[in-house]
Specification:
This protein is mostly beta strands. Strand 12 and strand 13 form a beta hairpin. The model has no long low-confidence stretch (mean pLDDT 92).
């Protein structure tokens, strides 16, 4: 289906929308209750404009299909969750910007359920936004990751990114591993690195 916006206004529980989606203009999708979850099962094609989770989205939005296209993702929500889950790598070419709430990454490949790319392009995390990895290898190996006082939490998982820049907090968790340098760019990171794990520069 072609769609421009989608909202879930029920007070609690879970709802599922199964068709594939081709966006028409900015695709605004939000969940207005913090006790509610909206599951989008189909693939999403971001034809021109971004997928936007608005500032007043409070619940959980779970995107399980593959996301492709030339646009990106803008997470404006102050307290909601956006989860990129499901089978297969995302391939959209635009940036992902997290300005609030939580972006949870858990894409995988069947049959082994190995982690695969949820964020294929550059990633910016602004305060108070958090990006949380629930599996390995969620961010593209050549992605530029910019922290604007935001939070990147590996939670014990491993990932390789192109570069890290800015100021924020990187949580490795226990036995987490972050490898940087895949895009060959020179950057400065002036934030904190916490946890028990490894940070490697290639």
């Amino acid at each position: 289906v072609r769609i421009g916006s989608l909202t879930a206004s029920y007070p609690s529980g879970s709802s599922t929308f199964r068709p594939d989606i081709q966006t028409w203009g900015d695709f605004r999708v939000g969940v207005w209750s913090n006790a509610a979850t909206l599951n989008l099962m189909g693939d999403i094609s971001l034809t021109i404009n971004d997928l936007i989770v608005p500032w007043n989205s409070q619940g959980t939005l779970n995107l399980q299909g593959v996301i492709d296209g030339s646009a990106g993702i803008l997470m404006e929500s102050e307290s909601g969750d956006l989860a990129l889950t499901g089978n297969g790598a995302n391939t959209f070419t635009g940036p992902t910007i997290v300005s609030g709430g939580n972006l949870r990454l858990s894409r995988y490949n069947l049959p082994a359920f190995n982690g695969t790319t949820a964020i294929p392009g550059d990633l910016t995390i602004r305060y108070p936004g958090t990006v949380l990895l629930s599996r390995n290898n969620q961010i593209a190996n050549d992605a530029e990751v910019n922290l604007d006082y935001g939070f990147l939490n590996l939670d014990g998982n491993s990932d390789t990114v192109g570069s890290i820049a800015g100021t924020g907090v990187i949580h490795l968790g226990t036995n987490g591993a972050l490898t940087v340098g895949g895009n060959g760019r020179s950057t400065i990171y002036a934030g904190a690195i916490r946890g028990i794990g490894n940070l490697d520069k290639t």
